[in-house]
């Protein structure tokens, strides 16, 4: 029985290690990807300007929205997500 | 009169067992909570009604060639329904807030501690001789702490189908109880001042980043943890359809008609596992108790991780958003927003909490892939 | 030239039998009635086209691995499609008028006499040696009198799949003929004065009553007649989704995309049973004749029951509404309204007829459950 | 063969008996349910007031609509049901 | 540590083959073309993502009980998905322009020469020992020239499932390349004066003609070439639902929710055939090359046929519309319109090209039926 | 191997023959059908006037629309078909 507990402890350590490693790697690759898209200018490829589901697609940096604007988005998102199905 | 005998013998009054009667009451309770209290109604209405149908004696709806059993075999035993739901969730998910602040992914990692602590708890109960869970069952129970219905059903279907009913009930019940379970833990672990921290406004994210992200995530999974590829693959597929802008009609159907149809049948199929024989066991009590522990530990780990990150981060992080790392999208993020507003009525944390919230979905899918790889 | 031979031997001209040619004409007639005369078009267009496809020689669409045969096996042999349609009908049904005046349930009971009289008729034809129906087949034929397509298909699939084509055709054809079959019988059995009776206006029904009713109905079924639970269970599930208010997106999909998709495949699957071999038999003529009798007797029983109730009731009952007890929702209720308006141009009976109309759905599902219990 | 007819007659009697018994019982339980909901005051629970598919949810008794109103509902219902799928 | 070993052995880094890596790059290329270049995105996004999932080592999504393999077995091996898509295409197709000018059906016939020339080419490559295609495989490859995705997938599933991935990729890629492949051929074979020909305005077509046409077409198929009945039968069924006016709710669901759902699963299922083992072969290169030839020959045959018809026709025919006979609806018709406008800015050929365009769908389904009859 | 080529040539000839025969027959039967519908007056049966998805259903012959009208239809059709799924 304590063999079971031992493999549980081992699984926990490997598990949290894997989860953290994976998501940490994802943090770095995501940052690298965003950097490449925004700084190398890919954000202005046709794929960006031609798509049509109504989202602002501005390249990063111009964001000087007011606090009210963010609150409005938050409320809208909340409303949107309240119909979300999990 | 032979026919009258046949009629009487075929009736529920003649055939019903006490267990079935109890399960009918439990199913009615689930329906009450779903309808009157709005506890995750999309799943608890369908699961509850499925449970009702499964415990009608003699109707054999959840066995043999009965409709609910066929649904279970076709959609849940194969894993198809949870994966299609995950595709739909992908088509509903906006990774924008996560992309604007990628380090919140770590909060989604920390909150998965609930999963592994619960696994250990389940094994501990077995070591103490109180319950009798093997490693696969313990892993399936742990995933309740991921606060993600389809993930929990997918893993339980693979590793411990005999516990699927109890695990699904526990997962959705506690996801519904997030507004009750989380706030005390969040307040216990933070000071009023910490809860008042105002975070830097998120930058806008370009469409191209949103298109590339699901592909990037899938490639990482492919190279590092392929056993998580079914779940995260379908999730990323749904999200790519949403963001790529050229298949809007497919994305629209995925997040409406398709996810709704599959939700109905998923719920009925899960309900077919609420038969008295398999549900009314001491193991179910253990699962419900462990599930509650899993949620609490996950919440605490997320908050503590956020506090730790705040020490090292140049920009302030409100530790409340760590609680959203358990996923339970979008309920947990809303709870964060509400608790944050209590401390500072001008502090809208909803957008900031959406990052860890969807990170939690990724985190628990990674944990699920690992469990499947290691234990099977 | 071998290839030319092969081409000729593979052609319809070389292979078609007289029976297939006749069935193609019959299928075209069904399409004509559906399109030009609007006879139950949702089912007769799909069944008619399915019949057309099934009688193309050499195409093997309705046999082996042909699409229509696969649809039949997956959706009709299992009972899944009629049950899903019933869920959709539940999501479309408003029990309000029935709840406002519950005693109209008795009209839905009386009209089921058509079912049992027809069963007796089928057995009588066999006793006389004219036809050769056994008890299961007679029971399946009787259900035509229930005027409920999915119920008839579900029962025929269980008890007499070899007659399914003829039974489905008869059921939908006579449902379409309700405006022609019913009025003469209604007028024969009532006086002008009775047809002019104005009924007391229905009270409004609270939402909570509408939520509880499907659960109450299902519990009664569970305790008394579990064999009716698949049909009435799915019906009540659809209705609960409609009324409970917390799963509106599921209810919406159920009564639109889902019921439409399943209707298309149900029709094609039923059409696969219109092969010449199985349809062009003397039994089909017997089924068509008996089906007509079933409708007439059901209508008469409903009207006579309403007259009887009127003797005992404190509040006046217009006997015409008894005719709606056969179901054929909502056509029969509209016929009642029309015949009532002829007698008294100020007398709108539509709402009053909706009670017995949906009661007829319940009544024939109860009769169906009983048939399945007793004969199988 | 007459054995078949006999079982047919028996089935008819049992059948109509069952159908009538079941629906009569349903009449009484439905009345009891409505009574409980309306007179014991359950009709004002949150479950009633929070739901949203646009139906009048008034507790019984206040119904003093005009004949025209009923006719209008009837026409609307008819229109609604004419698209109904059986 | 055993578990770490297990983790490493289960990772993609440890298991991935060079072939899988190449297929992941190819899948990403397909996604790029679909998203950035809008190449038939509905299919290339779904096929591309399916290809990605199928080449994740160890995930086993496209084999055994993996979701994509189950989708393939259920929907593509049976032929169900391409047939349902064809039903949806029928519900989207307006035969009006064809009915107004039926002789354009001949253009749809001529363009099928691409199919048979390609078949001959595939056999020629085998005769030369360069490739090794048998008659069934050559027939399936030829159908690429039909420029009709569902038809190509249906035929490949029947005659050469091992080539299905390559054939589907080729078919959709070249359909996407129509605006690049066709114009040079069209210009080479016509003079500026011919391209400027203004055609007589099309008459309006009555609804009854539109209702009868799909039935007429199906009856001709039934009598002459039943092996084309599954494809053309479902196409005509969808079109009849569209035109008959009495089942609008079914037609609406067919051309929206249903076709979208099936498109998603069809794409994933086709993607499951993009495994490195079966796709990375010299045969795939042959198929891609032959597919390009097929399109070019089909385009040329259509244009030349239109020129021939112009000699005999009382009313002028612009030879450009012959190019639309390959189908690739509606892209080919739009290309015709564009090339026509270059020659004469007042000459709108779109409506005139829609006739041969849908005729091409019929023509390639007829050719497909013939191939299936002769070779199986 | 050359046997394979031969059967390919035979299949091509039979194939193109079949496709042309079938579609030629379809041209004639379609013309006959249109003639029957329009000249024998079937185009005024109830099936035509009662259906409701908004298409002009005029019997042939009255078509004196302007070129602009056709262009407008063409544009509308193009827009419609651009969402079409093949
Ligand atoms: Na999670
Ligand atoms: Na009925
Ligand atoms: Na074609």
Gist?
The complex is a heterohexamer, with three copies of chain A (86 residues) and three copies of chain B (376 residues). Chain A is mainly alpha-helical.
Note down, in words, how this protein is organized.
The complex is a heterohexamer, with 3 copies of chain A (86 residues) and 3 copies of chain B (376 residues). With 86 residues, chain A is mainly α. The relative contact order of chain A is 0.05. With 376 residues, chain B is mostly helical. Chain B contains 20 helices and no strands. Bound molecules: sodium ion (3 copies). The site of one sodium ion (NA) has 9 residues of chain E, from helix 21.
Number of helices of chain A: 3
Structural class of the helices, strands and pairings of chain B? Answer: mainly alpha
Q: Would you tell me the overall average pLDDT of chain A?
A: 63
Question: What can be said about the biggest beta sheet of chain A?
Answer: none
Ligand kinds: sodium ion
Specify the number of helices of chain B: 20
Name the poorly predicted regions of chain B: none
Helix percentage range of chain B = over 70%
What would the principal axes of the Cα set say about the shape of chain B? globular
Q: H/E order of the elements of chain B?
A: HHHHHHHHHHHHHHHHHHHH
Estimated helix fraction of chain A: 55-70%
Alpha-carbon distance between the two ends of chain A: 37 Å
Intertermini distance of chain B: 56 Å
Quaternary state of this entry equals heterohexamer
């Amino acid at each position: 029985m304590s063999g079971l507990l031992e493999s549980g402890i081992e699984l926990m350590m490997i598990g949290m290690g894997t989860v953290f490693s994976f998501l940490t790697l994802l943090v770095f690759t995501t940052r690298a990807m965003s950097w490449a898209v925004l700084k190398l200018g890919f954000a202005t490829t046709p794929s960006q300007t031609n798509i049509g589901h109504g989202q602002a697609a501005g390249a990063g940096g111009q964001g000087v929205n007011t606090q009210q604007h963010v609150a409005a988005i938050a409320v809208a998102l909340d409303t949107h997500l309240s119909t979300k199905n999990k | 009169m032979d026919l009258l005998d046949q009629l009487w013998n075929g009736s529920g009054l003649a055939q019903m067992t006490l267990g079935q009667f109890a399960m009918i009451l439990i199913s009615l309770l689930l329906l009450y909570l779903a309808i009157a209290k709005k506890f995750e109604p999309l799943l608890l209405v369908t699961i509850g009604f499925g449970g009702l149908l499964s415990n009608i004696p003699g109707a054999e709806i959840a066995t043999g060639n009965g409709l609910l059993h066929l649904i279970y075999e076709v959609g849940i035993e194969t894993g198809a329904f949870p994966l299609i739901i995950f595709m739909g969730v992908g088509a509903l998910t906006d990774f924008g807030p996560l992309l604007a602040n990628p380090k919140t992914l770590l909060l989604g990692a920390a909150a998965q501690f609930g999963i592994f602590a619960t696994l250990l708890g389940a094994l501990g109960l077995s070591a103490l001789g109180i319950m009798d869970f093997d490693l696969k069952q313990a892993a399936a129970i742990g995933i309740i702490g991921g606060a993600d219905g389809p993930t929990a059903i997918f893993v339980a279907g693979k590793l411990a189908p005999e516990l699927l009913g109890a695990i699904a009930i526990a997962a959705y019940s506690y996801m519904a109880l997030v507004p009750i379970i989380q706030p005390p833990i969040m307040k216990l672990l933070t000071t009023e001042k910490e809860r008042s921290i105002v975070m830097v406004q998120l930058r806008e994210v370009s469409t191209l980043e949103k298109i590339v992200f699901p592909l990037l995530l899938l490639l990482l999974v492919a190279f590092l943890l392929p056993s998580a590829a079914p779940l995260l693959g379908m999730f990323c597929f749904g999200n790519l359809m949403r963001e790529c802008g050229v298949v809007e009609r497919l994305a629209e159907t995925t997040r409406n008609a398709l996810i709704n149809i599959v939700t109905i049948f998923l719920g009925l199929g899960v309900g077919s596992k609420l038969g008295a024989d398999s549900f009314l066991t001491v193991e179910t009590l253990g699962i419900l108790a462990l599930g509650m522990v899993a949620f609490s530990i996950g919440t605490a780990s997320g908050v503590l991780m956020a506090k730790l990150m705040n020490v090292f981060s140049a920009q302030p992080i409100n530790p409340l958003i760590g609680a959203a790392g358990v996923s339970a999208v979008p309920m947990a993020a809303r709870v964060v927003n509400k608790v944050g507003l209590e401390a500072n009525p001008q502090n809208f944390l909803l957008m900031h909490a959406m990052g860890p919230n969807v990170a939690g979905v990724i985190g628990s899918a990674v944990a699920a892939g690992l469990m499947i790889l290691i234990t099977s």
